[in-house]
């Protein structure tokens, strides 16, 4: 059974600080997606990483896919209150029709 | 382009009742997936429909069922509601099936069972 573990489960920091959240597995994934879910809304796709070692940037957010395609990280520089939300990773695994989801990291950025 | 629309937004039901949730996908999207989201459990996959056919089903009891219409709109039904069914139910549409296709989520239906 393929699993994705996200850490930390909860993170509360001050505006302007940097942070990194992780999405780890013992299994290899063909690709990995990151979503952000704000309170009262559905998840919104941020990025898809496909190649081992790939780095993608989205303004102050940097996503990296591990060389072995078993893990991924999301780094936020100078966090803003607008970054507050639940960050979810989802992996394309062995099943052709079902993504494997992590439980999420709940991030709160205090002004 | 209109996003994914889920109705109703909030629902309160009593144990033993049944409920039907509705999802209208983005125009042109033929795949609709349903997820249950509870605190600490993350997103649990219920099922996916593509061109009116159920393509895949998660590990939920038979009380959970769904269907998709010819216009790609989808409904999900839960019968004999239990307290543990209280959750946010999310619908996501995609232009194609397959787990590498990006999902576009609606804002969900918050179901409370008392």
In brief:
Chain A is an all-beta fold and 111 residues long. Chain A has strands at residues 5-7, 10-14, 19-24, 31-37, 44-49, 55-58, 61-65, 71-76, 85-92, 99-101, 105-110. In chain B, strands 2, 4, 5, 6, 9, 10 and 11 form a seven-stranded mixed beta sheet that branches.
Topology:
The complex is a heterodimer of chains A (111) and B (114).
Chain A: E1 5-7, E2 10-14, E3 19-24, E4 31-37, E5 44-49, E6 55-58, E7 61-65, E8 71-76, E9 85-92, E10 99-101, E11 105-110
Parallel strand pairs in A: 2-11
Antiparallel strand pairs in A: 1-3, 3-8, 4-5, 4-9, 6-7, 7-8, 9-10, 9-11
Chain B: E1 5-7, E2 10-13, E3 19-24, E4 31-38, E5 42-50, E6 53-57, E7 64-68, E8 74-78, E9 87-94, E10 104-105, E11 109-113
Parallel strand pairs in B: 2-11
Antiparallel strand pairs in B: 1-3, 3-8, 4-5, 4-9, 5-6, 7-8, 9-10, 9-11
Structural category of chain B: mainly beta
What string, H for helix and E for strand, traces the elements of chain A in order? Answer: EEEEEEEEEEE
- What is the CA-atom radius of gyration of chain A, in angstroms? 13 Å
* Shape by Cα distribution of chain B: globular
**First-residue to last-residue Cα separation of chain A:** 41 Å
Largest sheet of chain A: 6 strands, mixed
Mean pLDDT of chain A: 93
Description:
The complex is a heterodimer of chains A (111) and B (114). With 111 residues, chain A is mainly β. Chain A is built from no helices and eleven strands. In chain A, strands 2, 4, 5, 9, 10 and 11 form a six-stranded mixed β-sheet that branches. A five-stranded antiparallel β-sheet of chain A has the order 1-3-8-7-6, with no helix packed on it. Chain A is globular. Chain A starts with a strand and ends with a strand. In chain A, 37% of the residues are buried. Chain B has 114 residues and is mainly β. Chain B has no helices and eleven strands. In chain B, strand 4 and strand 5 (42-50) form a beta hairpin.
Key phrases:
A: 111 residues; 11 strands; B: 114 residues; 4-stranded antiparallel sheet
């Amino acid at each position: 059974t393929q699993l994705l573990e996200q850490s930390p489960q909860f993170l509360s920091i001050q505006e302007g600080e940097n942070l990194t959240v992780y999405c780890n597995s013992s299994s290899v994934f063909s690709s990995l997606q990151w979503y952000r879910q704000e309170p009262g809304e559905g998840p919104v796709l941020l990025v898809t990483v496909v190649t081992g070692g790939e780095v993608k940037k989205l303004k102050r957010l940097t996503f990296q896919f591990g060389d072995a395609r078993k893990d991924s990280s999301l780094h936020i520089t100078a966090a803003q209150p607008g970054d507050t939300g639940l960050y979810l990773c989802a992996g394309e695994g062995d099943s052709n029709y079902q993504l494997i989801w992590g439980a999420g990291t709940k991030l709160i950025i205090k002004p | 382009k209109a996003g994914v629309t889920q109705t109703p937004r909030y629902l309160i039901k009593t144990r033993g009742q049944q409920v039907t949730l509705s999802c209208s996908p983005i125009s042109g999207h033929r795949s609709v997936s349903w997820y249950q989201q509870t605190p600490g459990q993350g997103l649990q996959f219920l099922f996916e429909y593509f061109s009116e056919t159920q393509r895949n089903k998660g590990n939920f009891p038979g009380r959970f069922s769904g269907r998709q219409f010819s216009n790609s709109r989808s409904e999900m039904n839960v019968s004999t509601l239990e307290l543990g069914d209280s959750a946010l139910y999310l619908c996501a549409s995609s232009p194609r099936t397959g787990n590498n296709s990006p999902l576009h989520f609606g804002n969900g239906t918050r179901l409370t069972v008392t």
